[in-house]
Amino acid sequence: MPDIVHVTYQQTGKSKSTNAYGMREMQQKAFEARSAQYILIKAPPASGKSRALMFIGLDKLINQDIKKVIVAVPERSIGSSFAKTDLMKYGFFANWEPNPRYNLCTPGVEKSKVSAFINFLESDEKILICTHATLRFAFDAIEEKQLDDCLLAIDEFHHVSVDGDNRLGMVLSGIMEKSTAHVVAMTGSFFRGDSVPILLPEDEAKFTKVKYDYYQQLNGYNYLKSLGIGYHFYQGKYTSAIHEVLDENKKTIIHIPSVNSGESEKDKYEEVNRIVDGIGELDYQDPDTGVLYVKSKTTGKVLKIADLVHDNQKDRDKIQDYLRNISSVDDIDIIIALGMAKEGFDWPYCEHALTVGYRGSLTEIIQIIGRATRDSENKSHSQFTNLIAQPDAEDDLVKLSVNNMLKAITASLLMEQVLAPNFKFKPKYPEEDEDQDGVEEEDEDYIKIRGFKLPTSQRAKDIIESDINDLKARIMQDDQMIKAMPGNVDPEVINKVLIPKIIKETYPDLSDEEVEAVRQYVVVDSVIKNSTIEDVGDKRFIRMADSFVNIDDINIDLIDAINPFQKAFEILSKSVTASVFKAIQETIDATRITMTEEEAIILWPKIKNWIAKTDEQPSIQSFDPQERRLAEAIIFLKEQKRKATASNE
To answer: Do 4 and 413 contact (CB within 8 A), yes or no?
Structure first.
């Protein structure tokens, strides 16, 4: 299947170059906000968030009368990102020097770590590193006021939420309400994947936001030239299909599915064995490092494979220690993981992230893709491939398979929005002379659109400036929107009814005027990023879905008439068989049909009569309302049969 997303970059080197303090571009932006009490850094993997925190933390300790810095990370392995670092050799005015005694990202029971946390607060030490879990447990033993004039830095901030059961969210809320603590929150994605917000609007408004997007990061690399995101649909067992997309010549992380997912074969250890056996013959396992040496069936080359799936802690510690100290592109070839090798995992040589099964969290998808998008001289292209079970029209689980397929593809649409270059938009007014030779210099970076509405309130401006991708994530993962993908909902209904409804639900404080301004921006930005702009002579044209128009002639009505899912729909319809595509459409249609069992029973003889006369089934696409209703009855009865079979099982 061809890539749904393929983005090329200019290799400007800008995101990797440093200033006189040794700061990269993103870190400079973050450091400019250093005097704020609450800072939210939204930046992609590998952009340097951990070092940005070091710069900010040291400035607060030395120049802002902050007494202590506490860094909380989601898991122990990420704590190494905040280890002792010589910053002065790069030009900064101080070094990051945590005392190893107060690095609590080590093996051990939480009770002793909480004691160490309390001792740290009472000591003269300045820096502590711990896990989110230790931070949560510590707040069962201390009060928020004990963090007065301290800086709390929370890495992978999307783990926080305002849900009453989210202890980390409750801890943060209490700290902000009851202490003078400063907070630095860092995340690659602000979208949790559920409907629960990370912060309440009134708390979020307190944060100074530092935004550095994926395109800025990847476009500024030295080596990476392109990134592809694609899907491969399989039937049967994934362990038999995985070798259709596994390229042994590419440094690859394979993320196998959760044992609770439909793709899982329910024995994770046996799945690893089958993957390894499919690659070749195990020569031996190094007793000191845990690395598997496997002779490839296809090339004869000996491949080095790391197994992060097995739970034996001693063996896992050995292989993790080996991976942490990799210094050469030849040190490992393939990593097989289940819940690991995602957040904070650094293997810059990785070229291919091969993931089995749909991932329900967009944040998780972004994190997985981030494993392959480090800049490294061994690669010019990075690839994310999602191996997805193909819906089977005869399978009772077809509805689940269809939902997973559509959600996976909408996730790729979102990633295209995240990865593509950003555009700026302005209204084009009737009195403007279209034939004038020159355009004001300040307008050169803008696309002008007739009927386009600019936001007038600061709230709407902030949403467009900082939250647009997170809003798109909510829109594209909405159940109604996913069902609209196969082209069975009018584009204007999608753009003018469904999208503003989701915006209102996400931001209930917005007025109708603000909702319309945000809606227009979301729709325009989505359609333009899914389009291609071409120069023809001295004019620019834009190819949007089936339209190819002069960019000077575009207007909001034209854009509202385009399905933002058009590209994915076209790729999907060409990439699966006609029977599978029909099953997808029928599954979606079944959720919309209102029919009683009594009506379906009455219609059944008419359906048989229709088929006998025409030698064809009634079509759901027919202009004849009676034929359409007969087709709906067939879909309804199929769905009832599936439900009955599932219930009996």
So the answer is: yes
**For residue 55, how many other CB atoms are within 10 A of its CB?**
23
Q: Are 148 and 176 in contact (CB under 8 A)?
A: no
Is residue 190 within 8 Å of 366, Cβ to Cβ?
no
Question: Would you say 515 and 523 are in contact if contact means Cβ atoms under 8 Å apart?
Answer: no
Q: Predicted confidence band at 502 (pLDDT cuts at 50, 70, 90)? A: very high
Please determine, for residue 434, whether its predicted confidence score (pLDDT) is greater than 60.
no
H or E element at residue 131: strand 127-131
Tokens representing 352? 């291919």
- Conformational region of residue 488, where left means phi above 0, alpha means psi within -120 to 50, and beta covers everything else: alpha
Contacts 24+ apart (CB under 8 A), 366-370: 366/44, 366/45, 366/188, 366/189, 366/415, 366/418, 367/45, 367/188, 367/189, 367/342, 367/343, 368/253, 368/255, 368/342, 369/227, 369/229, 369/415, 370/44, 370/45, 370/46, 370/188
Residues whose CB falls within 8 Å of the CB of residue 28, separated by 6 or more in sequence, listed in order? 19
**Residue 408 included in any domain:** no
Amino acid at 506: T
Q: Report which secondary-structure segment, H or E, holds 42.
A: strand 38-42
- Run of H or E residues at 550: strand 547-550
Phi then psi dihedrals of residue 227, to 5 deg: -140, 130
Q: Which residue has the tokens 């301004």?
A: 517
**Phi/psi of residue 229, each to 5°?**
-125, 120
Same-domain pairing of 166 and 192: yes
Q: Domain range holding 614?
A: 593-648
The domain total for the chain is: 4
194 and 88 assigned to the same domain: yes
Place of tokens 């299909």: 241
Regarding whether 455 and 504 lie in a shared domain, the answer is yes
Q: Are 563 and 641 found together in one domain?
A: no
Give the span between the Cα atoms of 393 and 401, in whole angstroms: 10
CA gap 291, 307 in Å, rounded: 8
Computed on alpha carbons and rounded to an integer, the radius of gyration of the chain in Å comes to: 27
170 plus 274 within the same structural domain: no
DSSP string of 586-625, one letter each residue: HHHHHTT----HHHHHHHHHHHHHHHHHHSSPPPTT-S-H
Same domain? For 427 and 543 the reply is yes
Task: Assess if residue 588 is contained within a domain.
Answer: no
Give the containing element (helix H, strand E) for 450. Answer: strand 446-450
Q: Which backbone phi and psi does 211 adopt, to 5 degrees? A: -115, 130
Instruction: Return the pLDDT at 197.
Output: 59
What is the arrangement of strands in the sheet containing 252-255, beginning at the earlier edge strand?
5-8, 226-234, 381-389, 352-356, 252-255, 334-337, 302-307, 292-296, 280-285
Token reading at 230: 């694609």
What stretches of 358-511 show up as alpha helix (H) in DSSP? 362-372, 398-419, 458-466, 468-476, 479-483, 491-493, 499-506
Distance of CA 458 to the CA centre of its chain: 27
pLDDT tens figures, 195-249: 555 666 677 788 998 989 888 899 999 999 999 988 888 888 999 999 999 999 9
Q: What is the pLDDT of residue 438?
A: 43
Region 93-113 average pLDDT: 90
